[in-house]
């Protein structure tokens, strides 16, 4: 949505003079769409600042204004959020948890189209193509809302230009927690821009491996256990991880990140960074 077209010029000078002054929200962006996936998960889209440039996979600080109990002044309450939309999208998308007593998400979960959020336009992060050496196959490993940076990277043309094969694993407790990711991946088949830029059928490069741990679904178990037993590789019909050809990005809870990091190192992969690209990168989906 074009922010300029939303600014209705004030034509009635009297009305403008008597209307209560609207508090200015710093770095304000307007919510354009909200979708609730479960009672713990929602996604939303908002306007994108014209000056915001980011690399698919990066995160920014977003939030809402709140009254400081001490000073009584309005100030922003911010949290880190992966941008779930790709770098070329004219809007921004976020995929969010709802923590019932969470300072931000207890309120953020109630946003509606037309509301304003605060967005600090300073993207950062390690889940970027620049932090990896060239390879043939890329693995995206996610739990829960850790899918968000991969929602961006799966819609990024460079992912398919750089790799012959893209494997995305997503482990959640319950089946409904997989729906956002499943719908997004299904939607790639008919994504006009990606089909045009990368070539029709680009999505056949993707292998999607969703698993649940606490509710019955077609594939149950933690991805770490499924890889250790060899079941994941057999199901996917691929060779085990090889440092010469495989690259990986990890985004999930701390225990998952640490366990998978140790496993990848056993396979011979080394951790990279923006300043020192190597074979895998890792980022927390939230602070424990
Ligand atoms: C680099 C980075 C990127 C992040 N990206 C996202 C994102 O894309 N989407 C998102 O929903 N959150 C993301 N987070 C977490 C986010 O910053 C907030 O913690 C979250 O929005 C909850 O905020 P809150 O103020 O309501 O509760 P907080 O006080 O921040 O958190 C309360 C507790 O809720 C749990 N929790 C927080 N976030 C999550 C989560 N995402 N999944 C499961 N449990 C959680 C933790 O146990 C935490 O201690 C990210 C965090 C980091 C560090
Ligand atoms: N998801 C819910 O329905 C729910 C409901 C209420 C409250 N909460 C609370 O919200 C917080 C976050 O819950 P969440 O479900 O979003 O995220 P989570 O606890 O991080 O779990 C997400 C997925 O990661 C798996 N996992 C955890 N550690 C792993 C490891 N070391 N290796 C591989 N996989 C691992 C989990 O499997 P396991 O199931 O085997 O741990 C689960 O399938 C928790 O504190 C939880 O108590 C969650």
Explained architecture:
- Pfam families: NAD_binding_1.
- The chain has 288 residues and is α/β, with parallel strands linked by helices.
- The protein has 2 domains: 3-124, Translation factors (Elongation Factor Tu (Ef-tu), domain 3); 129-284, Rossmann fold, CATH 3.40.50.
- It contains 10 helices and 11 strands.
- The strands form 2 sheets. It has a 6-stranded antiparallel β-sheet. A 5-stranded parallel β-sheet has the order 9-8-7-10-11, with helices on both faces.
- Strand 10, helix 10 (254-266) and strand 11 form a beta-alpha-beta unit.
- The longest helix is centred in the C-terminal third of the chain and has 13 residues, at 254-266.
- It starts with a helix and ends with a strand.
- Flavin-adenine dinucleotide binds at residues 59, 79-82, 95-97, 99, 102-106, 144-145, 148, 283-288.
Keywords:
single chain; 288 residues; alpha/beta; Elongation Factor Tu (Ef-tu), domain 3; Rossmann fold; binds flavin-adenine dinucleotide; binds NADP nicotinamide-adenine-dinucleotide phosphate
């Amino acid at each position: 949505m074009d922010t300029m077209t939303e600014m209705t010029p004030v034509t009635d000078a009297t009305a403008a003079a008597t209307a209560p002054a609207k508090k200015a929200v710093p770095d304000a962006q307007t919510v354009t769409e909200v979708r609730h996936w479960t009672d713990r998960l929602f996604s939303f889209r908002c306007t994108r600042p014209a000056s915001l440039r980011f690399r698919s996979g990066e995160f920014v600080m977003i939030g809402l204004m709140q009254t400081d109990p001490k000073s009584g002044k309005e100030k922003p309450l911010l949290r880190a959020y992966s941008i779930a939309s790709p770098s070329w999208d004219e809007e921004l998308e976020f995929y969010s948890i709802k923590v019932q007593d969470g300072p931000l998400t207890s309120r953020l979960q109630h946003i509606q189209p037309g509301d304003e959020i605060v967005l600090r336009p300073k993207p950062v992060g390690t889940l970027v193509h620049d932090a990896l050496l060239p390879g043939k196959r890329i693995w995206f490993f996610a739990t829960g809302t850790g899918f968000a940076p991969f929602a961006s990277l799966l819609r990024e043309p460079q992912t398919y230009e750089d790799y012959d094969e893209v494997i995305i694993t997503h482990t959640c407790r319950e089946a409904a927690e997989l729906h956002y990711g499943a719908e997004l991946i299904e939607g790639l088949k008919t994504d006009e821009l990606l089909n045009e830029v990368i070539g029709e059928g680009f999505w056949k490069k993707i292998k999607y491996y969703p698993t649940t741990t606490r509710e019955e679904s077609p594939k149950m178990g933690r991805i770490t256990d499924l890889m250790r037993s060899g079941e994941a590789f057999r199901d996917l019909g691929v060779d085990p991880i090889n440092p010469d050809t495989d690259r990986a990005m990890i985004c999930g809870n701390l225990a998952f990140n640490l366990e998978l990091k140790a496993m990848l190192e056993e396979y011979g992969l080394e951790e990279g960074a923006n300043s020192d690209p190597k074979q895998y990168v890792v980022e927390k989906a939230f602070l424990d």
